[in-house]
Amino acid sequence: MRPPLNSPKNHQRKINMVVASQGAAQVVLLTQIPLIVERCGLSLASIGGLVALGTFCLMIAGPLWGEMGDRIGRKPILLAGLCGALLAQILFVALLVAMALGHLEESDALLALAISRIIYGLNAAAIYPCCQAWAIELGEPEKRLSILSGLSAAANLGRGLGPLLALPALLAGALWPLAWLILLPLTALVLTIGLPRIDSGKPDTRPAEHISLPPGAMMLFATALLSTVSVGQLQVIMGPALKDLYGLSALGASSATAVLLATVAICGFLVQVTLVRKLKTPQVSFMLGVASLCMGSILLSSTLGSLFAAAGLLVFVVGIAFLVPGYSALLSQSQQRGGRLFGLLALMHTGGYTIGFALGGWLYEKEPQQPLLGMLISVSLIAVCAVLANLISRKKRLQQVQYRC
């Protein structure tokens, strides 16, 4: 029996669709970089700088939007962020089309493109923290892991569908896939308008000393940062490694990278909707994620250059699929306000990707014989953080038992 239209479950589905649309929009842009270089006359360095600028703005604005969501409410903040992101994407696409038609030169358009990415980053930063906090508030406390794994799965699904959305649009013309950069946030905006305003953002009147994080929270935040550092490094070296170690051409390596990114996103989605959501506690998901991540990293690094590396990549992806909802659910058990908490988590994730992209490329050039060295170090630190988080949590529980006695 399907839930009523106004049920919390139906609202959570719409929130998941908003998250999926954001993930798809990110991947659509990345898949069109070669065509933007060719048709618009932008250099690869300029595109990289624009993407980095938007990512930086995402990183710094996430906690601020989360805090405002706590104070004002999730729906108005999410609507404001989506409206700003939509306007920024319209400006960005219009500028690229004008360049492709020869109406603008790179030197004339670069400042306006940078402004569009700043506006986009500052506004899109509202999406993930608001959606995560809102979904948690709509659900039951004991189902945090299931809810957060559903959101993570939705983001993975969006990333997997992004390239598939771009392919049919290419048949209409080289730049037609850029239309998705407008259609996806517009769809998310319509979905959000259809959600009821729930008083989820009640002001928190508790004294600051009563708003606490769970035991080992700093280790969990560190794990969030290091996990995206690991993924970022793997993503940035995937194309060069396919070219150098597997003898593919530049075009072949780019195509294979797109297929692999879509495949691993779909694999992550399947693991989260079939396995993670059935686990009883977030601690189990967290530890399974750490174990799979370590095994996958070792297998991948030891078999890189052969077809067996695909097995290592699969185990690595399974680890991330367990790990992310695991530490997110553990952190959400704190007495922190949801928006602030998930804003900080978004800061860790975006900062981790930024570090991973920069570190992965630099290490690949410095140590081409050990292309996954940085990733192995990051995963080793994740294992250390997991052990420390577990020890701190256990010590805190023992202290509470002793206090009660």
From TrEMBL:
Entry keywords, A to Z: Membrane, Transmembrane, Transmembrane helix
Domain Major facilitator superfamily (MFS) profile: 1-397
Residues that span the membrane, as ranges: 15-37, 43-65, 77-104, 110-135, 177-196, 217-238, 250-271, 283-301, 307-330, 342-364, 370-392
InterPro entries: MFS, MFS_dom, MFS_trans_sf
Pfam families, per the entry: MFS_1
Keyword Transmembrane helix: yes
PROSITE patterns: MFS
Annotated protein name in UniProt: MFS transporter
Organism from which the protein derives: Microbulbifer echini
Taxon lineage: Bacteria, Pseudomonadati, Pseudomonadota, Gammaproteobacteria, Cellvibrionales
